Amino acid sequence: MKRFGLIGYPVGHSYSQNFFKEKFEKLKLDDHAYDLFEMEFLNEFPALWMRHQDLVGTNVTVPHKENVLKYLDRQDASAIKVGAANVIHRKKGKLIGYNTDYMAFRESLSSWIGKFSGEALILGTGGSSKAVQAGLTDLDIPFNMVSRNANGADYTYEQLKSNPEIIERFELIVNTTPLGMYPNIASSPDLPYHKLKKGSFMFDLIYNPEETEFLKQGKMNGAKTKNGFEMLELQAEKSWDIWNS
């Protein structure tokens, strides 16, 4: 058996398991399995690989993309660039980390917005945010970041609410936070949506639900919107390529 899976907490909302099950069926890979490994604390990580000797590779989701790095034997250039890993491949007994989020975001965004000369605003500063930062850097798109507190960010949500005209500067806003993700679909980043620049782009890394409250608010205020489903599929395909390399 060749086993793959997803590490995170929680993982019940993930589409990854269905994606890979369908892929295995399509390719007639009866000896392949994809499991959900719900893991609140990463101190369980080494035991997982000991327990499943047939485990070839895993995806990693929130909240472990950054902290998982210290458990790896090696990091690919993509993981080093981002400072986070969302794919792990066990090769010749060594655990190697990669970041396909970064590559998938860059590809999904550039195919959507085309040539872009504006500024971006990133909501969040965690592992997913780091992948977005790397993608925007590759595309030469300058960006600022927003967080609940000032540590590591350019703005806080309170600052944006107090000075709503700030948001008018940005022609691209990317949500990397879990706000609005199923089952908490009523929540959204606390932004002055009425001040959005007309015709701006709003990209949400969330794909469940298909249209988050963040995207609904954007659409209501004249923005173009896109969710994270294409990015998810792109990063999953890149994960598969890595595991078979």
Task: Describe this protein's structure.
By secondary structure, this protein is an alpha/beta fold. The protein folds into 2 domains: 2-98, Rossmann fold, CATH 3.40.50; 102-230, Rossmann fold, CATH 3.40.50. The chain is built from 8 helices and 12 strands. It starts with a strand and ends with a helix. The mean pLDDT is 96.
Keyword list:
Rossmann fold; six-stranded parallel beta sheet; alpha/beta; six-stranded mixed beta sheet
What's the topology here?
Layout: E1 2-8, H1 16-26, E2 32-38, H2 45-51, E3 55-60, E4 74-75, H3 77-82, E5 87-91, E6 94-98, H4 100-113, E7 120-123, H5 127-138, E8 143-147, E9 155-156, H6 157-162, E10 172-175, E11 201-204, H7 213-220, E12 224-226, H8 229-243
Parallel strand pairs: 1-2, 1-3, 4-6, 7-8, 7-10, 8-9, 10-11, 11-12
Antiparallel strand pairs: 3-5, 5-6
Helix pairs in contact: 4-5, 4-8
Overall form:
elongated
Q: How many separate domains?
A: 2
For the biggest sheet, the summary is: 6 strands, mixed
What structural class should be given to the helix and strand makeup?
A: alpha/beta
Number of helices: 8
Order of helices and strands: EHEHEEHEEHEHEEHEEHEH
Round the Cα radius of gyration to an integer and report it: 18 Å
**Terminal-residue CA separation:** 18 Å
Mean of the pLDDT scores?
96
CATH class value of the largest domain: Alpha Beta
Share of β-strand residues: 15-25%
Total number of β-strand segments? 12
Percent of residues in helices: 25-40%
What is the spatial order of strands in the main beta sheet?
2-1-3-5-6-4
The name of the CATH superfamily of the largest domain reads NAD(P)-binding Rossmann-like Domain
Which topology of the largest domain does CATH recognise?
Rossmann fold
Uncertain residue segments: none
| CATH architecture descriptor of the largest domain | 3-Layer(aba) Sandwich
